[in-house]
Amino acid sequence: MELDEFIHIVPKVREHSLHQALTYLKNMDDAEDVVQEVLAKLWQMHDRINNMEMMNHLASVIVKNTSLNTIRNRKTAVPIDSVMQQETHGNPSLQLEEKESRQRLEKIVSQLPDKQRAVIRMRNVEQLSYTEIAQVLGTTESSVRAMICKARQALIKQMKLAT
């Protein structure tokens, strides 16, 4: 599914997902958080989604599972590609150092909450604009900036602890 089609479908999916999450959680703030996570997960799978019916079905399943996990106060894990995409050429010592740094960063990123991992991936790996991320998540650009800032702060904090 292409970005334009995804963005066109998101408002309908968001509305249905919010209603479903509210049914489980009975709290608008928690339901909004779940819906943002759902939309982020759907975006991560957008290249495998063929149509709106499939997207609605996936959204319903993800809302249910994420809501139940929220109730249990546990997070689901979704693998994320490495945020660092650099290569070092020539020097084996630099290559080893780069590999170790990448592994450390991947471990730290994998420990972030789902929503933070998703926005970091969309911004740094997929290189989506703040506007595009806001459209994908069904939220405002300023909210996206705040989420990315919070995710980066968490990364920095964990990196400092790891050294």
Would you give an account of this structure?
This protein has 163 residues and is mostly helical. It is 74% helix and 0% strand. The chain is built from 7 helices and no strands. It has helices spanning 3-25, 28-44, 52-71, 92-110, 114-125, 130-137, 141-162. Helix 1 (3-25) crosses helix 6 (130-137) and helix 4 crosses helix 7. The longest helix has 23 residues, at 3-25. The radius of gyration is 17 Å and the shape is globular. It starts with a helix and ends with a helix.
Write the SSE topology.
Elements: H1 3-25, H2 28-44, H3 52-71, H4 92-110, H5 114-125, H6 130-137, H7 141-162
Helicity level? over 70%
Instruction: Indicate the low-confidence ranges by residue numbers.
Output: 74-88
Overall 3D shape: globular
Radius of gyration: 17 Å
Largest sheet: none
The average pLDDT value, as a whole number, equals: 80
* SSE run: HHHHHHH
E-strand count: 0
What is the straight-line distance between the termini? 41 Å
- Work out the strand percent: under 5%
- The number of helical segments is 7
Structural class: mainly alpha
Keyphrases for this structure?
163 residues
Describe, in short, the structure shown.
This protein is mainly alpha-helical and 163 residues long. The protein has helices at 3-25, 28-44, 52-71, 92-110, 114-125, 130-137, 141-162. Helix 4 (92-110) crosses helix 7 (141-162).
